[in-house]
Amino acid sequence: MMQDTASPSPRRKSKQPALRFKTGEDVREYRKKLGLNQSAFWSQIHVTQSGGSRYESGRSIPKPVQVLLHLAYGTTKQAQDMLAWLRADRS
């Protein structure tokens, strides 16, 4: 009798969850909705006020900063989905 020696099927690569904040305008609107100044808002993800101001004024926001914003200011479900995606086996 022959044994099946095929390796287990590879894990399907999951799709990255959609980021909550893609533009500085998105961030600025949300920050104002929360009633926070730039220092208070951006310090939660260890970005300086001047750095946050540049993003809010139109400079592109790097993906790692977008992910941190998503984790810090997204809903609990959004944060959990992002963490699950980040922790997924990528081999």
Which short descriptors sum up this protein?
91 residues, 434 Repressor (Amino-terminal Domain), 0% strand, mainly alpha, 5 helices
Short description:
With 91 residues, the chain is mainly alpha-helical. Helices cover 53% and strands 0% of the residues. The two termini are 32 Å apart.
In the predicted model, the low-confidence regions spanning at least 5 consecutive residues are 6-10
Helix content: 40-55%
Radius of gyration: 19 Å
What's the CATH architecture? Orthogonal Bundle
Overall tally of structural domains: 1
Determine the oligomeric state from the structure: single chain
Sum up the overall morphology in one term.
elongated
Whole-Å distance between the termini? 32 Å
Q: Please, how many helices?
A: 5
What is the average of the pLDDT values? 88
Given helix and strand content, the structural type is mainly alpha
Helices and strands, in order, run as HHHHH
Number of strands: 0
Largest sheet: none
CATH-defined topology? 434 Repressor (Amino-terminal Domain)
Question: In percent terms, what proportion of residues is strand?
Answer: under 5%
CATH class label: Mainly Alpha
